[in-house]
Amino acid sequence: MDTPYAITINGKRVPTSTTRAAINPATEKAICLFPLATREHLDQAVVAAQESFSIWRDRPLEERQALVAKLGDLISENRESFIRLLITEQGKGRAGAEWEIGGSIHWLHEIAKQSLPSEVIVDKGEEQIVTRYTPIGVIGGITPWNFPLLLAVWKIAPALVAGNTMVLKPSPYTPLCTLWFGELAQTVLPPGVLNVISGGDELGQWMTEHPGIGKISFTGSTVTGRKVMSSASVNLKRLTLELGGNDPAIVLPDVDPKKIAKDLFWASFANSSQFCVACKRLYIHEDVYDAVAHELVEYAKTVTVGDGLTDGVELGPIQNRMQYDKVLNLLQDCRDRGQRFLIGGEASASPGYFIPVSLVDNPPEDSRVVVEEAFGPVLPLLKYRDIDDVIRRANNSPYGLAASVWGKDVRSAEAIASRLEAGTVWINQIHTFSPDIAFGGHKQSGIGIENSLHGLAEYCNTQTLMRKPLAV
Ligand code: NAD
Question: Whose CA is closest to atom 42 on ligand 1?
Fold first, then answer.
């Protein structure tokens, strides 16, 4: 089998002696082999990033910005091929892949316009005090498998604009788009500025321990995030951790169930619920519970699940066997506890890691399907009567990534939203992201921010520069 994609170190394709198969989750068949980098490859990549750092840092900001924008052009020129490769390796439907590839282009173009001007604190002629933002050095980027290219771009664009260089590791489940992008990027960037190496989980751990890396920007599960934080302590690495969530949505009694069902459905099931900010607990007021549940079931029946390369498919499979087995196990737990499915609940025996949209009817608040991050298309519908009670239940989680509130009375919805413990709270909308909007988790959903100037600042050290004339 071919190994068409290579790791990129110091501007060059580098062969590896070991490889692994990338699997198409819709067919369970191998797509191709991809390279497994060793510790020596990591060392080479870090040295290349270190050696290119001072040259890249000293290039005028406008030149760095222009080159980052050109990275967006590279994806744009290969848009259709990226979309098809993303569908094949990740499993998502066509619309989802268009959203991710379009988003990757947009983020590179827009983050390329950002900068952090110095803040002048004192300005008295020769005497001046300035707070400025300087790059950190080599950034280690580690990404998950649900939005492989977009989440890599969320790291690459600000890291490079700020003047850092990078070693990036995609998930072993979805390495292909990122490896290809890494190769294409060499036609634009100086060698060593962006090095992309693929490998197993151990490669991620070696990165977090590597003394030559100054910061880890990690997106993945909370369990792994804790390990990253622990091993990053060796050289006090700076950290951005974007981790898991168990996002609540609160539906108020004044909604029109028919009108709201579509939005609530996609709030939960977009990307087959393999979305850190998917609604994972849907709290519905008892006055409208039955009607909303009914409309959700009716809408779910209209959604086509299948291979994303097939026209009309809206939802694909679970991305990998490990996650598929976890979701199956959760479904089994629901059945073992006698919980009722309003739709779904059983995986089909056909090939591919397919799990049907599954709605669980008002399971107990302490059941696994409510407490755990399913990261698959299984949604508990939960009944509530009292606003204080639902806010308490919504906040009763170690996670605090995002939340949403849905109701006609926007002021009441906002009053509830402001009491929710989450990094982003949407009212009558969900999954609104922008390069200019800060995104990050509270509690065990993360540390730090991505996007916006807050996100850019995370790729910088803060330096205070004080100037004074010599006393004569
Ligand atoms: P994961 O934590 O298993 O893996 C993420 C990355 O970490 C992969 O590249 C993996 O190879 C690497 N890794 C594994 N062990 C490591 C270690 N010990 N040290 C360093 N790196 C290591 O997560 P996943 O299953 O790929 O992704 C799903 C999770 O990501 C979900 O919990 C989801 O909520 C979360 N996520 C969060 C966000 C966010 O922005 N908050 C976005 C997307 C996904």
Answer: 276
User: What single letter denotes the amino acid at residue 52?
Assistant: S
Nearest to 309 by CA among 299, 321, 318, 317: 317
For 395-421, the pLDDT digits (tens) are 999 999 999 999 999 999 999 999 999
Half-sphere exposure (CA, 13 Å, Cβ side) for 166?
28
Dist CA 170 CA 34 (whole Å): 11
Angstrom distance (rounded) from CA 176 to CA 190: 22
Contact partners, residue 456, CB within 8 Å, separation at least 6: 111, 114, 115, 116, 158, 161, 162
The protein residue whose alpha carbon is closest to atom 15 in ligand 1 is 201
| CA–CA–CA angle 48, 139, 443 (5° rounding) | 160
DSSP calls for 119-165: EEEEEETTEEEEEEEEE-SEEEEE--SSSHHHHHHHHHHHHHHTT-E
Are 79 and 105 a contacting pair, CB within 8 Å? yes
| Residues 291 and 415: beta-carbon distance below 8 Å | no
Pocket perturbation via mutation, ligand 1, pick of 42, 142, 330 by most ligand atoms within 8 A of CB? 142
The DSSP output letter for 471 is: P
pLDDT in tens, 137-190: 999 999 999 999 999 999 999 999 999 999 999 999 999 999 999 999 999 999
455 lines ligand 1 (CB under 6 A): no
168 alpha-carbon distance from chain centroid: 14
Point out the ligand 1 atom lying closest to the alpha carbon of residue 205. Answer: 19
Ligand 1 nearest-atom number relative to CA 224: 2
Is 307's C-beta closer than 6 angstroms to any atom of ligand 1?
no
Q: Judge whether 276 counts as a catalytic residue.
A: yes
Per-residue tokens: 322:
């490990």
Query: Which of 146, 173, 325, when mutated, tests ligand 1's pocket best, judged by the most ligand atoms within 8 Å of its CB?
Result: 146
* Residues 204/413, Cβ–Cβ less than 8 Å: no
Q: How far apart are CA 160 and CA 67, in angstroms?
A: 9
Polymer length in residues for the chain: 472
Q: Pairing relation of β-strands 194-196 and 165-169?
A: parallel
Is residue 177 part of the annotated active site? The answer reads: no
Contact 293, 282 (CB under 8 A): no
pLDDT along the chain (472 residues), means of 10: 95 97 98 98 98 98 98 98 98 98 99 98 96 98 98 99 99 98 98 98 98 98 98 97 98 98 98 98 98 98 97 97 98 98 93 97 98 97 98 98 98 98 98 98 98 98 97 86
